[in-house]
Design a protein that fits this description.
The complex is a heterodimer of chains A (193) and B (186).
Chain A: H1 2-14, H2 25-30, H3 35-64, H4 73-95, H5 97-103, H6 114-125, H7 130-160, H8 170-185
Helix pairs in contact in A: 1-7, 3-4, 3-6, 3-7, 4-5, 4-6, 6-7, 7-8
Chain B: H1 2-29, H2 36-44, H3 58-66, H4 78-89, E1 107-111, H5 121-125, E2 131-132, E3 140-141, E4 161-165
Antiparallel strand pairs in B: 1-4, 2-3
Helix pairs in contact in B: 2-3
The chains are: A mainly alpha (193), B mainly alpha (186).
Amino acid sequence: MTDYILLLIGTVLVNNFVLVQFLGLCPFMGVSSRTETAIGMSLATTFVMTLASLLSYLITTYILIPLNLEYLTTMSFILVIAVVVQFTEMVVHKTSTNLYRLLGIFLPLITTNCAVLGVALLNLRQQHNFFESIIYGFGAAVGFSLVLIMFSAMRERLANADVPTPFKGAAIAMITAGLMSLAFMGFTGLVKL
Amino acid sequence: MIINIIIAILVLGSISVLFGALLGYAAVRFKVETDPIVDQLDSILPQTQCGQCGYPGCKPYAQAIANGESINKCAPGGEDTIKKIASLLGVEVEDLDENHEKDNRPKVAFIIEDDCIGCTKCIQACPVDAILGAAKQMHTIIIDECTGCDLCVAPCPVDCIEMRIIPETIQNWQWDLSKIPVKSLD
């Protein structure tokens, strides 16, 4: 049990996917200008990442490895991710049309969020078992959500701040992201895996 | 060797079929009911997304018409669009809203290039990216792309954009059959 909790904390804080491993930067910069969309995006990504890491674990363990088809992992993971994203898109469209319109193009673009494929491939490389895979996927998504929501909150405040002209817009966002990344380095060594 | 390839294709193929079936089921299960009339109205509207009707684009205006908004607010579409909408909805043809110009002969924007100061404001206003130019460089209109929505006229600080009527030539002249009165006999 402790192992699972440590793995979760380690994935969320220590090996944060966005700020430490630099995966999933496109939605991190793209949907972080408003907190409302950031929260919606976080929920959608959490759902996709957890489900994708679960399904890709099942597919590798029960289909690809017994048949000696390990070279198909990347391809089948992409397939899994695309399906899960499509499914999420349908569910979001059905349940909240407003959120669907707010997320817009970024919803199908979860497919190309490299963090999702990254989780599936890292699960395989670190030889996680079934529950570890789910926790790793979920932890990665929680880390992504945490950082995305914090960053969007900061950017909302930055929009009103008196920023020098050359730093306006994307420049100050990049600097903020860099500072956040530095801050997250403080978590290094919190959990030894 | 060949067997391996066939197995790989079969495995990936059956996974895909499985997922396809899942998505197909989800598409039916989570189907979103859209009002078909809105899509039909949207296809009649000229898709210039100019916002002259007071809505952010053609789709929102189509939505509004479906909810009872008056049908005479589309200036780029003009009389023809109003007639089509009226026949689709089975209502009376109305004249174009008086806020807009009556004259709906097709127009294109024209930049008086000597006066252009290169401020790029019209480029930002253009909904179809029909204006070419860069900051402090003279701009020009790509006539084939311009939909004549006149959104670029207002932002120009030096009033160097005007709307010019496209002269009728043999190439763009069209039969206007709807102007010929047809009487149906009982």
